Amino acid sequence: MENNCIFCKIANGEIPSATLYEDEEFRVILDLGPASRGHALILPKKHASDLFELPDETAGKAMVLAKKIAGTLKEGLKADGINVVQNNGTAAGQTVFHFHMHLIPRYQKDTVQVTWTPGTLSEEDKNEILSLF
Ligand code: AMP
Ligand code: ZN
Which ligand is closest to the CA of 53, given by its number? Predict the structure, then answer.
């Protein structure tokens, strides 16, 4: 556990939370500042600051768990869709530096904003980015 990490404390049960699911490696809780009804967070119990620090095996299990919990939320809350959001770095909107995945149920007429204005892909960018791989 990382010192003074609130999600370490929540994931490991040191701070109480509205827990939807728990196993040896993960805790899934309700977000205290929900974007929509049913907004949940998947937290690994072992600290990793972000996706880049997360072990591959945990990353794989987190996505399988996201699928399972998202299904229950969607059906149980009669949501019309679900956004799976995962922020890394301040620039990307990360505010708690313990890896987590957001499950945000979406409803046809909601006003949640998980959106951007589409740009255009230049030839120069395309070639430079393709050359990274
Ligand atoms: P992010 O901006 O991706 O780092 O997301 C952090 C999320 O954690 C936000 O949606 C907050 O509402 C949520 N959050 C912060 N503190 C708590 C807490 N103590 N319990 C539940 N959710 C929290
Ligand atoms: Zn932590």
Answer: 2
